[in-house]
Request: fold
Amino acid sequence: MATFEEMILRARDAAYTTEKKTTEFVNKTRVKLEIAQLQKQQAAIFEGVGRLEYDAAESGEDITALKAEAFETVRDLQKKIDKCHDRLYSMSGAVRCKDCAAVNDGDAVFCKKCGKTL
Ligand SMILES: [Zn+2]
Reply:
């Protein structure tokens, strides 16, 4: 039978674990929201490029430079999204291979897809 002190310690450990899990959940949710916002910005740019293409087709204007600028912004946003995914993976104990981008278990030494050292 557990002593009163042991019961208190168990309750404290349970509270600590719950708090830790809640913090983890909140942090993961924040990163997921950040990803959603970045993807929304990308979608807006893609929509804008579609509008530009249409307007250019109507007016005959050259929009090559504008599109290049828009695609550069899309690439920058994608880099931020990739970093967010990496943060999520590391929060889950997983690691992404730098060569092939496969997601591996946190304790893996070699990539399960390409075999490179992680
Ligand atoms: Zn790999």
The pocket of zinc ion is lined by residues 97, 99-100, 102, 111, 113-114, 116 (CB under 6 Å). Helices lie at 4-59, 64-91.
